[in-house]
Amino acid sequence: MVKEHAQEGWRLHTLEPLPFGAGGQALKIQLIFERELK
Fold first, then answer.
1. Largest interatomic CA distance in the chain
2. What is the rounded distance in angstroms from the CA atom of residue 19 to the CA atom of residue 25?
3. Of 28, 31, 26, 36, the residue nearest 12 (C-alpha)
4. Which residues, in sequence order, are CB contacts of 26 under 8 Å at separation 6+?
5. Interstrand relation of 29-34 and 11-17 (parallel, antiparallel or unpaired)
6. Which three-class secondary structure string do you get for 1-38?
7. Residue 38: which pLDDT band, with cuts at 50, 70 and 90?
8. Does the CA dihedral 8-11-16-21 come out positive or negative?
9. Superkingdom of this entry's organism (predicted)?
10. Over the stretch 2-18, which tens digit does the pLDDT of each residue have?
11. Against a cut of 0.85, is the pTM above it?
């Protein structure tokens, strides 16, 4: 997924863990991308 976005000019900016489970593990990770406006 990251490689495909990179080929389209996007750069991975932030990995944000979303709600944590009982063991402290992230249940989901939100990927935030950015790219320069043209």
1. 44
2. 9
3. 31
4. 17, 18, 19, 20
5. antiparallel
6. CHHHHHHCCCEEEEEEECCECCCCCECCEEEEEECCCC
7. confident
8. positive
9. Bacteria
10. 999 999 999 999 999 99
11. no
